Amino acid sequence: MKKITIQTYANIALIKYWGKRDKKLFLPTKSSLSISLPYLKTSTTISESNTDKIVGINTGIQNVKKFLNLFRKIYQIKKNFKIETTNNFPTAAGLASSASGFAAIAKGLNKFCNLNLSNKELSILARYGSGSATRSIQQGFVLWNKGDYNDGSDSYAFQIFDQNFWPEFCIIIVIINSDQKNISSRQAMQITVNTCSFYKNWIHKSEKRIPKMLQAIKTKDFTTVGKLAELDCLQMHKCMKNSFPAINYWQKQTLQIIDFVKNLRKQKIHCYFTIDAGPNVKIICLKKDRAKIINNLLNICNSSQIMFN
Ligand code: PMV
């Protein structure tokens, strides 16, 4: 029996995506920019089946089923699939498992059905599963251009710099809680779009950070990259907290790690943080400081809570 296996990687947004202008087509309100994390891997195996069978994904089987129906409709495919997924990291806890998950399914279906889709087409296909999956089709620094067309044909992600461009740049992940989140990012972002009074202001400011972030990455200006990422993340979470009902993904230890990062900066160890739809904190740093940061982290966390490349 034909079986294919695909590996993809999670990504962390340095400039965030949070909110859709079109829920059906997964069109974002703004552009976003991410870096892929080669140590957060998803492996997906696809084979044919009598009915759709989804194994190992706990980010919403219904979402995967909807995605498969859409895929069959768009590409006129008459098959059902067995999709088996494994991650080497906790799923649905704000570590972008839906990003690498749907990117793997899109790439896997493309290969299984011999569609020969381009990276642009794959990115658009992955977008129908999860917005952030749009950016996990490729590695390195990736920009998801929000696009302007109503049909979504110009809303896809492309690689800006590959995974070897800035080897010094690294992200340390501090896992605070690996349980599934109590509200999905899909629901939470729509609440923010509908109810946060200053959401439009964030979109406007965040969109303007994209060219600044691109320039900072290009020139390897670590301080500017870190500052822009931290500010964008803080403003996104401020929008969530000012939604109704208020959305809060942070836990006690999230605040502790934020303080930890700020204290390291006072000691002239350059690092910044970013947080997604979960309590876990990602520390942005340069490789030369990584060991120092991890040693300090071990005073307040267990080694099992720390992931890095
Ligand atoms: O793709 P989703 O629905 O899991 O949304 C992801 C949203 C954030 O992770 C919070 C930000 C981002 O740009 O990845």
Question: What do you see in this structure?
Answer:
This protein is an alpha+beta fold. It folds into two domains: 3-161, 2-Layer Sandwich (Ribosomal Protein S5, domain 2); 170-308, GHMP kinase, C-terminal domain (Alpha-Beta Plaits). Helices cover 38% and strands 24% of the residues. It contains eight helices and twelve strands. The strands form three sheets. Strands 1, 4, 5, 6, 7 and 8 form a six-stranded mixed beta sheet that branches. Strands 10-11-9-12 form a four-stranded antiparallel beta sheet. Strands 2-3 form a two-stranded antiparallel sheet. A hairpin with a 4-residue loop joins strand 2 (20-22) and strand 3. Helix 2 packs across helix 3 and helix 5 packs antiparallel against helix 6 (222-241). The radius of gyration is 19 Å and the shape is globular. The two termini are 36 Å apart. It binds (3R)-3-hydroxy-3-methyl-5-(phosphonooxy)pentanoic acid.
Quick summary of this structure?
The protein is α+β, with helices and mostly antiparallel strands. The protein contains eight helices and twelve strands. The chain has two domains: 3-161, Ribosomal Protein S5, domain 2 (2-Layer Sandwich), CATH 3.30.230; 170-308, 2-Layer Sandwich (Alpha-Beta Plaits), CATH 3.30.70.
Descriptive terms for the model:
309 residues, alpha+beta, six-stranded mixed beta sheet, four-stranded antiparallel beta sheet, 12 strands, globular, binds (3R)-3-hydroxy-3-methyl-5-(phosphonooxy)pentanoic acid
